[in-house]
Amino acid sequence: MNILLEFFVVTFRVLWAFVLAAAKWLVRPKEKSVAGQVCLITGAGSGLGRLFALEFARRRALLVLWDINTQSNEETAGMVRHIYREMAEEAATAAPRAGDGEKDALPHCNLQVYTYTCDVGKRENVYSIAERVRKEVGEVSVLVNNAGVVSGHHLLECPDELIERTMMVNCHAHFWTTKAFLPKMLEMNHGHIVTVASSLGLFSTAGVEDYCASKFGAVGFHESLSHELKAAEKDGIKTTLVCPYLVDTGMFRGCRIRKEIEPFLPPLKPEYCVKQAMRAILTDQPMICTPRLMYMVTFMKSILPFEAVVCMYRFLGADKCMYPFIAQRKQATNNNEAKNGI
């Protein structure tokens, strides 16, 4: 094709992509069904991972829960089983009214949840548990890479082991889990990979160098994977990048921006964050930033001079927003050492 003609075709397609994106703002796309599909969630024992598990359970997915903490993971599984029982009871009550004309595509009694204790920061552990999942449950259709940690130390005060741990769990684990489950998705040309990153994977702040680096890495991995799937023309495999602002899960307890600004930009409620993410996942939205203001912040960071960004950070109190959090973590560490007689 003549390059000039191809240029006009590309221009039209770019403009059409804007039209389609605008249409999705006006007309909400229909959510797809994940009923009966195997959904694996890492870091399912608490926080966003637990809430993702409950949301997928309500949509009748078969759940595989991974977490390093066995007890909290089992607690999440108990909540999922409770949801399954409630749905089964509702289905049993509704069945006589429905009659024989309509049958449930997937009996509620077939819904199950499987738990595995897994340290996603250890490659061998991920691969061995993944093999068990394939044998005991089946092939994974929806992979939610959610597990995350934060060290809570300034760079020069952070032990190398904690830096490595942050990178392994927040970034490298995405490589291991995806390599474990992507081959079957490619074979079937069906699946969905969700990367739970952070707004700190799009722009950074002071005091959390290891965390920002790990989340930037997760975002880069996700975007490159998305392009690779497009290049391979595997349009049946969807990807969604989740980048929330500060979420009130306790992970960054103490983090504060300027007090005059905070009422307009408070920490996100975890339930709201997950509901927004679920809407994006079930409508095959490639990326979701919560709140929408994060899109603007990312855009401005990309076009403004660095000194202008610094001025904005200082005005918002975002330049040192992590310092109270780090101070609390340091105090907690000192208290634990004193308690243990160290």
Automatic annotation (TrEMBL):
Q: Tell me how this protein sits in the membrane.
A: Single-pass membrane protein
**The EC number(s) this enzyme carries:** 1.1.1.300
Q: Which domain of life is it from?
A: Eukaryota
**Pathway assigned in UniProt:** Cofactor metabolism; retinol metabolism
Primary location group: endoplasmic reticulum
Tell me which stretches of the chain form a coiled coil: none
Record field: catalytic activity: all-trans-retinol + NADP(+) = all-trans-retinal + NADPH + H(+)
- Mind telling me which InterPro entries this protein's record contains? NAD(P)-bd_dom_sf, Sc_DH/Rdtase_CS, SDR_fam
- State any GO CC term: lipid droplet
UniProtKB keywords: Endoplasmic reticulum, Membrane, Microsome, NADP, Oxidoreductase, Signal-anchor, Transmembrane, Transmembrane helix
Which compartments is it annotated to reside in?
A: Endoplasmic reticulum membrane; Microsome membrane
Which GO molecular function annotations are given, in alphabetical order?
all-trans-retinol dehydrogenase (NADP+) activity
Family to which this protein belongs = Belongs to the short-chain dehydrogenases/reductases (SDR) family.
Q: What is this protein called?
A: NADP-retinol dehydrogenase
